[in-house]
Each structure stands twice: as C-alpha cells, then as structure tokens.
Design brief:
Blueprint lengths: L5 H9 L1 E4 L5 E3 L6 H10 L4 E4 L11 H17 L5 E6 L8 E7 L3 H10 L4 E5 L6 E4 L2
Antiparallel strand pairs: 1-2, 1-4, 3-5, 3-6, 4-5, 6-7
C-alpha cells in the first residue's frame, strides 16, 4: 500500500512523460509506446527507466536545487554506463511546471528503483519488453 496522497498519485498517472529524442515522443502510464519499442529495437535493449531528481518526495524545491540534483542524477546514470536521453515530465493540465527528466534505455527495474530512491523520489516510470509505461511507486 502506498503512502502517496491521492492527488499526487493522480498527477503521476495523468502526466505526459516526454522523451526529447528526434523525433520526440510521449510515454503515458498504462499505454504501449511504438516509439519506445522502436528505440528498444535500435538500441538492442528491452527496457528503460524514466527518472527525475526534481522535487524530492513531491515537495516543491527551488529551480537551482532541482537543476543541481538533476545534474547529479545524470552523472550517476552515465557513470553506470547508461545512455541519457533528455526528457520532461509535463502536467497536461498546466497546474505545475515540467520537471527535467531522463530516459535511460536498458536500465532494469531494480537498479532504477535504487537510483530513484537515492534521489528521494516517490515513483518512477519503467517499461519492459512490451514498451508499456508503468508507474512504479517507491513509498
């Protein structure tokens, strides 16, 4: 059972997780992404994690602090040998600002959960071989 409040959970479920690949594409929770499946095929992988370091535990932080945390996340992901494709989590209703994010192709779920938890995130988005975006709750 999650300790994330219902409004926050609904925001995560409705969010558009944009991958700023050429051309850009959007992941939506519960939906298969043909663009992600094509990326898997091109990259020779069968999974990916969509991560952010912005607003730990869903609490708003200053932009500079979020940017510094995101830069550290990108360094951590790259140091583990993963590609970092820029992304942004966007509220389709426009009630909150987009959060800089990253898609890490080939990152398994267990490692993605460890990384997201180390940046005090409530959740992450992960897709396996079916290229269907899943919301993974961490608390």
């Amino acid at each position: 059972m999650s300790t994330i409040d219902e409004a926050t959970l609904l925001a995560y479920l409705r969010c558009h997780y944009r991958v700023l690949e050429a051309p850009p594409f959007t992941l939506r929770i519960g939906e298969r992404s043909a663009a992600l499946a094509a990326l898997f095929e091109r990259s020779g992988c069968d999974c990916a994690a969509f991560l952010t370091a912005w607003n730990p535990r869903g609490e708003r932080h200053e932009v500079a602090a979020n940017q510094a945390a995101q830069a550290a996340l990108l360094r951590d992901i790259a140091a583990r040998g993963y590609a970092c494709i820029p992304g942004v989590g966007e509220d389709p209703g426009g009630q909150w600002c987009g959060e800089d994010s990253v898609l890490a192709p080939a990152m398994g779920l267990a490692e993605a959960m460890l990384i997201a938890d180390s940046y005090r995130q409530n959740a992450l988005v992960w897709a396996g071989p079916d290229a269907r975006a899943q919301l993974i709750l961490l608390r």
